[in-house]
UniProtKB/TrEMBL annotation:
Keywords: Cell projection, Cilium, Coiled coil, Cytoplasm, Cytoskeleton, Flagellum
Similarity field: Belongs to the RIB43A family.
Name of this protein: RIB43A domain with coiled-coils 2
Coiled-coil intervals: 218-246
Chain segments annotated as transmembrane: none
NADP among keywords: no
Subcellular location: Cytoplasm, Cytoskeleton, Flagellum axoneme
Subunit structure: Microtubule inner protein component of sperm flagellar doublet microtubules.
Keyword Repeat recorded: no
Length: 377
């Protein structure tokens, strides 16, 4: 009885696993209905699902990073705003302190660098009675107004010329005003005469227009009455003609020829079509029956094709099963032959080992050599 070695168990397990994978592959390959040439849809579906899972994981990781970045940005904005407020408060406190306790006026040397020193200083001479106008200051001298009389005479002459010029301008203005008033009176009288004449013409024209309008209205009324009588008469004639046309026309008589289109015999006028004829209905029913028969024939061919595919698949599966059984039988025969060979080799090795031991202890006998040679042969 042979003992199963761990290596043999591993080989049998691997062989069974390969055999199972081969059977699964044969089911996928020999199934003509679910097979796609050169592709494994289940593996593709698994790959697509794995890819979607990977993309979802990556998206979630990116969203987490984005949320963390937004949180960090918000914290950074808050800290920057706080820093700006602190700087603004510090600058304001420094300015307030400088305005309160470090004003330029409080310096000892401010009078040397005061920008408003010239504005604050008094002028050299405020008036003739200024007490600061000393002799050494040289701001006032005796006898400075030497041309007083000529200046006064020139001023009097200038005032007289100005008065005469004003009188002449006043007289000219009065003369222009009198001329303008006379012209205005003449123009006003002319306008009044023209308005009176136009008023007379307007009253005469209005009377003539009223007479003409009255005559025109009378003629229009006469023409309107005659036109209404003529229209009523024409309307009655049109109604009689329309009734006659409808009674003898194709619409009420339902003539099928009126629906014929000028674009071809296979087209009709929709607003005149009264329906299909019995011949057309029979032809449509015949075409429908032919279509039903054709559909049944195609379904029968599809069913026969499916049956052929199923039969081929069963035959191929049966052939594969027979081939696997034959391979198993051949492997079993080979294993048995190999076991027999290994058993004979083991026996020969034992005899050889025993022979070597006997050689070491004493000389072998002739019967032993004969037995060993026979077994070897």
């Amino acid at each position: 009885m042979e003992l199963a070695q761990p290596r043999d168990l591993g080989q049998d397990l691997a062989l069974g696993k390969r055999r199972h994978n081969e059977l699964c592959r044969q089911k996928r390959v020999f199934n003509a209905r679910n097979r796609i040439v050169g592709g494994d849809t289940e593996a593709w579906d698994i790959q697509v699902r794995d890819q979607k899972i990977k993309e979802a994981t990556e998206k979630a990781r990116h969203e987490t990073f984005a949320a963390e970045m937004r949180h960090n940005d918000k914290i950074t904005c808050i800290l920057e705003g706080r820093e700006r407020r602190d700087k603004r408060s510090l600058c304001k406190a420094i300015n307030d302190f400088q305005q309160s306790f470090q004003r330029p006026e409080t310096r000892r040397e401010f009078d040397l660098s005061d920008p408003l020193a010239l504005k604050k200083d008094l002028p050299a001479r405020q008036s003739d009675n200024d007490i600061r106008n000393t002799i050494s200051g040289m701001q006032k001298f005796m006898g400075e107004d030497l041309n007083f009389r000529e200046r006064k005479k020139f001023q009097e002459e200038q005032n007289r010329e100005w008065s005469l010029q004003q009188q002449r301008e006043w007289e000219d203005a009065r003369a222009h005003q009198r001329c303008a008033e006379d012209l205005y009176l003449k123009t006003r009288l002319q306008f009044d005469e023209t308005a009176k004449h136009l008023q007379n013409l307007e009253s005469a024209t209005r009377k003539a227009v009223c007479v003409a309008v009255k005559e025109f209205n009378k003629s229009q009324a006469t023409e309107s009455l005659e036109r209404k009588i003529q229209e009523k008469k024409q309307e009655q004639e049109d109604n009689v003609a329309e009734i006659s046309n409808l009674l003898h026309g194709d619409l009420l008589s339902e003539n099928p020829q009126q629906a014929a289109s000028s674009f071809g015999p296979h087209r009709v006028v929709p607003d005149r079509w009264k329906g299909m004829t019995q011949e057309q209905l029979e032809q449509i029913r015949l075409v429908q029956k032919q279509q039903i028969q054709e559909k049944l024939r195609l379904q029968e061919e599809e069913r026969q094709r499916d049956m052929d595919w199923d039969r081929r698949r069963v035959q191929m599966a049966r052939a594969a099963l027979l081939l696997e059984r034959q391979q198993r039988r051949q492997q079993r025969d080979l294993r048995r032959a190999l076991d027999c060979n290994n058993l004979s080799l083991a026996k020969e090795q034992r005899l050889q080992k025993k022979y070597m031991e006997e050689i070491c202890t004493n000389e072998p006998t002739e019967d032993y050599f004969t037995q060993f040679n026979t077994r070897s042969r």
